[in-house]
Amino acid sequence: MINIERSFGGSVQGAFKHIYIEKEILNNQRVKSIIEHFPDSRIIVIDHYKDVFNRKRQDFILQHSSRNLILAAKKGRLVYDGAPVCQDFGNSHFYYTSCIMNCLYDCEYCYLKGMYPSGNLVIFVNIEDIFKEVEELLEKFPVYLCVSYDTDLMAIDNLTGFVLEWTEFTKKHKNLTIEIRTKCGRKDLNIEPCDRVIFAWTISPEPVIAKFEHGSASMRQRLEAASHYLESGWPVRLCFDPMIYIPSWKDIYGKMIRDVQKSIDMVKIRDFSVGSFRISESYLKKMRKAMPLSAAVQYPFVLDEGYYHYPDDLVDEMEIFLTGEIRKICPDAEIFRWAE
Ligand code: SF4
């Protein structure tokens, strides 16, 4: 039995009413092992995942609450240049890749709601093809690769095993560094650490988690997991990003940093990122239409060269405040601010 009950709000059995599988991967070993977890799901064979995922007039929000699963093999380009809204942590060759589209969690502000036409979960089982493309890049230069952007890879790892596969692949390639970002609280990954596999926790204050980060682990669970892997020898990053503007934000984010200090040895953290919420214009437009009552997306953001963000003085106030709180505890910490 896989341990993703919390994300599905109950038993895993029947978590996906339908599982769509591309016909060319019906005999794929990963497909077989994934569907074994869902004996009650109806299997539907399809030609191409886009026949289901890209259908017109889908309701992302509705679908997300009763998701179907699509198993596919990804074709075309598999590794992409890092997006301008994402922090590159000082790396010149910054890329990302997605072996999964959509996420078990349901953060109200998540850009996936504006980016994808469907709330269904897609798992691409041909991870070896992504590895090949990364190897081609590695022949030219060292690569910094984010592998958990369009999903939460760690949250769904009991189903896919991709965290282990990425770690083993990275261990074999000395000029590759990867980041696995998560909001999950699991501590049961039994993998030998690698100094080029960065486990990155997004840390938010409890009121933000309760209001906007539905289904994800609590702050305490995230910090316990981060501390566990830190003490086991993994490089750990803490991302205070996205900061969300809420009433009494300064008190709430200040308390959050004090709670982090109590739970984790902050001087051992590899680096920190601090960033207030920002999102591309087209995604926010779609999200506002789909979620007319969500405070996370209806805030009167400022539009600046295709991206919405809080007004500049608020961005500075929030990010400089949090950076200062971290520096009080770790004066020499490496802190990255996207705005810088
Ligand atoms: S954990 Fe990340 S990918 Fe998943 S819903 Fe939240 S913001 Fe989106």
Tally of DSSP β-strands: 18
Cofactors, ions and other ligands in the entry: iron/sulfur cluster
The average pLDDT score comes to 92
Beta fraction of the residues? Answer: 15-25%
- Bulk shape: globular
Tally of alpha and pi helices: 14
End-to-end separation in angstroms reads 45 Å
Structural class: alpha/beta
The amount of helix comes to: 25-40%
Q: Show unreliable segments.
A: 1-14
* Rg (C-alpha, Å): 20 Å
Describe the overall structure.
The protein is α/β, with parallel strands linked by helices and 340 residues long. It is built from 14 helices and 18 strands. It has helices at residues 5-8, 29-35, 49-53, 60-65, 112-115, 127-138, 157-160, 162-171, 206-212, 219-231, 249-263, 281-290, 295-298, 312-329; strands at 18-22, 42-46, 69-72, 79-81, 94-97, 100-101, 106-107, 121-124, 143-146, 176-182, 197-202, 213-214, 236-243, 271-276, 278-280, 302-304, 307-309, 335-337. Strands 4-5-9-10-11-13-14-18 form an eight-stranded mixed beta sheet. A five-stranded mixed beta sheet has the order 2-1-3-8-6. The chain has a three-stranded antiparallel beta sheet with strand order 15-17-16. The protein is globular. 42% of the residues are buried. Mean pLDDT is 92; it is low at 1-14. Bound molecules: iron/sulfur cluster. The site of iron/sulfur cluster (SF4) has 10 residues, from strand 7. Residues 103, 105-107, 110, 112, 151-152, 183, 216 line the site of iron/sulfur cluster.
